[in-house]
Amino acid sequence: MIKTVIIEDEKPASRKLERMLSEFPEIELVGKIESVEEGVKWFSENEHPQLIFSDIVLGDGLSFDIFEKVQTKGFIIYTTAFDQYTLKAFKLNSIDYLLKPILDEDLAAAIEKFKSFIPSDNSVNSQEIKQLIKKDKSTLSRILVKIGYNLKIIQTQEVSYFFSENKIVYLQTQERSFPSDFTLDELEDVLDEKKFFRVNRQFIINSDYIKNIHTSPNYKVELEFQPQEEITVSRDRVKDFKDWLVK
């Protein structure tokens, strides 16, 4: 049996996931947690499960806060409506990341993935699993940004480029620019490499929004974007950029 815990602050979502998990005879639900505070207490007082299904945004914080305060040897399948937390999730023993609403086939695939990591003697090699996770990482498809007291979901396909200014990374759409919680280095790891390319230390560009490419005899390459913006490809990236364009 796979001892399992659910971390979810929305009761309907928690009950639905519990019903879905009841279809898997190998899953034994040993706990349900609704907040960061409750999670820290539960994991401090109980034997840790092998598998954890965890929402990310809870009423009193992010579920990441639980596992930063109480280390667990269990592995986590995150369940959330937003995928902007992908990178951090994969740094915290996550083996999968399910976007809500959770589909039956996605849940089954996530459980099978977990089972495939566990040898017949039920031992867990954390380093080995983390290497497999690194190879299996999903690409970022949407980003949650703040506009005053409001939240807005932006599809990454709507972003013409990301840029760094005064130690803050912004994403640029046809509408306007929005600050993000990412660094450019983090974005390089999670963006679709077929669409996005780091042209210099300050910009990651989306090929769909390149309006013109200007070259000069001294190997300088400048990109003209929609909305209006000129971005220079750093000289040490010119060859890689040209190769990327024709992949």
UniProtKB/TrEMBL annotation:
Cited Gene3D superfamilies: 3.40.50.2300, LytTr DNA-binding domain
Transmembrane segments: none
Modified residues (4-aspartylphosphate): D55
Residue ranges constituting the Response regulatory domain according to the UniProt record: 3-115
UniProt keyword terms in alphabetical order: Phosphoprotein
Entry keyword annotation includes Phosphoprotein: yes
HTH LytTR-type domain mapped to chain residues: 143-247
Superkingdom to which the source organism belongs: Bacteria
GO molecular function: DNA binding; phosphorelay response regulator activity
Pfam families given in the database record: LytTR (PF04397), Response_reg (PF00072)
Keyword Protein biosynthesis annotated: no
Stated name of the protein: Two component transcriptional regulator, LytTR family
Natural source organism: Chryseobacterium taeanense
